[in-house]
Amino acid sequence: MRNVRKKTALGILFILFNVFCYGQSVTLSSQAAVNNFATNYPGDSTFDSITIGGSDITNLNGLSQVTDVTGDLFITTPSINNSPLTDISGLNNLITVGGRLTLFNLKFLNATNLFPNLREVGSGVNGDGLFIVGFTPANISGFNALFNVSGDLAVQNTIYLVTLTGFNALTKVKPLSSNNQAMLYFSNNRALTNINGFGILNEISWDYFFINNPSLVALPNTPLLTIIGKTLTINKCHSLVNFNGINNLTTIINGNLNISQNDNLSSLDGLDSLSICYGIGISSCPSLVDITALSSLTTFNEVSNRAIVNISDNSSLSSLTGLDNINGATIGNVVLQNNPNLTLCAVESFCEKIAFDTNLGGFTNVDNNATNCNSAAEINAVCQFLSTNEITENSHFAISPNPANAILHLQFQNGITINKLMIRDITGKLIVEQLDDVAKINVERLAKGIYILEAHSSEKNYQTRFVKE
C-alpha cells in the first residue's frame, strides 16, 4: 500500500512538472519582461510558445535558458518605424522549434550567425516552418546547425535584404516520406542578390519557388539536390541568365517546370540533368534563345491526363531543340503561341505525338509563330518531310552558327573536297546554289524556317539541317 501511494505521488509530481514546465505559452512585450524571464520561469527550458514584440525591447539576453519551443516562436517589433530590437543572441541556446519560427520586420537586427545551435524546425503540420519576412537588415547569416525543416522555409516580402548566407547543415525541407506539403520559396525580395549556402540540401518535398526576386543573379548552389516533390517555379527573376546551381536535379515528381517573365534569361543551363517532370511551361522570357539544356528530359510522369507543354511569348526563341527526347505519347495539350522567331517545332517528340494522336489532336493553340510553327498541320508537314527525307547527321562536316541569320560557316574533314553547295526548303525546292566559296554561304535573304544544306563532292553528297532565324 505504501508503495502504491509512493508511485501515485511520483505520478502526480510528474504531471505537475509537465504542466508547469512544458505547458507554458509566453508573451514578452517589454524589455523588463525579457530581463525578468529567468526570475519568472526559474529553471524552465522548454515552452509551448513564445511571442516577442515590444516597443522598448532591444535585446533578448534574458532568454538564454530557452532550449526548446514545442510550438511557435514569433519575434517582431511594433512597427517598421519603431524597430528597436537589434540583438537576439539570447536565443543562441535554442535547439528546436516544434511549430513555426517567424522573424518579422526586424529591420535593425544584428543578423550575423543567427541561431547557431538550432537543429530542427517544424513537426510536419501545415503552417510549420521557418519564415523570414518583411523589413530586414541587408545581410542575414546563420542557421548553420539546422539540418531539417519539417514545414515551409520562406524568405518573402523583404525590402532591404541583399545577401542571405548559411543553412550549411540543411539536408531536407520536410522529408518526402512525410507526404505533406512543404515549400522552399523566395518571393517578393526586391533587393535580394545573393543566396549563399544550402550546399548539402538534397530533398524538397513540395514546391521550390523563386518568384519576383528581380535582383537575384544566381540560384543557390545545391549540388546534392536531385529531387523536388512538386513544382519548380522561376518567375520574375530578371537578373538570372541561366539556372546554374541546380545542375544535378533529375526529378520533379508530381509537378511542372514553370519558367516565366525572366527578362534576361538566355538559356536553361542548369537543368541539364532533369529527366522527369509532369509538364513544362516556358513563357514571356524575351532573351531566351536556347532550350537545349532540356535534352535529358525523357519522361512526363502524368499518365492519366498527359502532360501539357506551353511555350509562349518568347520573342527570341527560334527552336524547340531540347525537347526532342520526350516520349511523344506522354504529351497532352501543346500550346505554342506568340514566339515570332520560332520556326523549328518539328522535334522528334512532337512528331511522335502527332503519330500517336493520328488526328493532330492536342495542339490546342498553335499560332503567331514563324513559318513551320503556325499550326499542327505545318508541324506535321515538316515531320512528314523529315521522315521521308531522312538526314543522317555525320561527322564529315560541321556548320555554325545554327540557327543562323546571315553567314553560315562550313568546316569539312581533311580529304573532303566540296565543289557545290545547295540549300533546299522542306518541300525539296532548290533555293540557293553556290559553286565558288564552299567555306561559307549567305543565308540572310532566306525566310525564317528549316532548310536542308547539301554539300556535293565528286564522290559523295552530304546533308545537314539548319534553321534560319
Structural account:
This protein is mostly beta strands and 469 residues long. 11% of the residues lie in helices and 30% in strands. It contains five helices and 35 strands. The protein has helices at residues 2-22, 31-35, 37-40, 348-357, 376-388, and strands at residues 25-28, 46-47, 49-52, 68-69, 73-76, 96-97, 100-104, 120-121, 129-133, 139-142, 148-149, 152-156, 163-166, 172-173, 184-187, 194-197, 203-204, 208-211, 227-228, 232-235, 251-252, 257-260, 276-277, 280-283, 299-300, 307-312, 331-337, 363-367, 397-400, 407-412, 418-424, 430-434, 440-442, 449-457, 461-468. The strands form six sheets. It has a 14-stranded parallel beta sheet. Helix 4 links the parallel strand 27 and strand 28. Helix 4 (348-357) packs across helix 5 (376-388). The longest helix has 21 residues, at 2-22. It is elongated and about 100 Å long. The chain starts with a helix and ends with a strand. Residues 1-22 have low confidence and may be disordered.
